[in-house]
Amino acid sequence: MVKRSGREREEPKGSMAMVKLTRRFLLGGAASGLLLPVVGADGAVRHEAAHAASPHHVRRAVRAPAVIRHAPPPKPVIMLDPGHGGKDPGAIGVSGTYEKHIAVAAATELHDLLMASGKYDVVLSRTDDRFIPLAGRVELAHKHRADLFISMHADALHQADVRGASVYTLSGNASDKQTAMLAETENSADRFAGPELEGIPPDVGEILNSLVHEETRRGSAHMAANVIRSFQNRIQLLRHPSRHAAFKVLKSGDIPSILVEMGFMSNHLDEQALRRAAHRTQITQAMKQAIDGYFQRQRRGML
Hints:
EC number: 3.5.1.28
Pfam families: Amidase_3
Distance between the termini: 64 Å
Structural class: alpha/beta
CATH class of the largest domain: Alpha Beta
Largest sheet: 6 strands, mixed
Strand order of the largest sheet: 6-5-7-10-8-9
Protein name: N-acetylmuramoyl-L-alanine amidase
Keywords: Hydrolase
Number of domains: 2
Domain MurNAc-LAA: 138-292
Radius of gyration: 31 Å
Number of strands: 10
């Protein structure tokens, strides 16, 4: 308690008390050459001498907000999965080209392109010629907490005249007979892993399919549509390029997943095109455009 004008008053509380205490501190410090920290409008901290007649300093010392720096959001993680590898060559082209080599070459180029953008963290399921079971590829995607899974292939059909790229998503039923045959071929890749990893029983397959969240299905469908749009007028497409079937490698319940067939090794025009680095660059650039569009929509809350 202090006396003023013959009566007692309480010291002010709250922010006014702080201002008065700061003023007294400044008045006392003016004589001793005290330096006080002052936060400027740009957020920088400077030390200025205390001046008794400078209420401006009081306001800045008391009211200047602290600058809070937020960490940047984490980058989306993309898992690129070159099909086949090692003892599994995949499709063998009409002139002897192995699908496994085409797949890893294209996926590696796409990896480098995406990483150079600085927008994503990108992981390859394989960077060399080795075999990975289908379930192991999905497991890798979960291990790295992928936000998007893209399996890259260049398969073959019995019809040598069929050519063009296509994009596949997971479904319990195939969209057409050709896609059903393709899924059967891709799923049979696990025959190279030995008897313990043979085909999944039908009842187990139905359970796995039911675990795929509707949100994941929508994300997969949006990504597939983006790839097809990006390929148009750049890459030869099948007549009906958006297809679906029960591909084992796409059975992840919470990661949007697509399988891209860049063309068919059974068609000599597709095979020759896929052997050319310039053509594979066109594919990877179109796929990057599709990926950019997908994550832009996601950031806007449109997925």
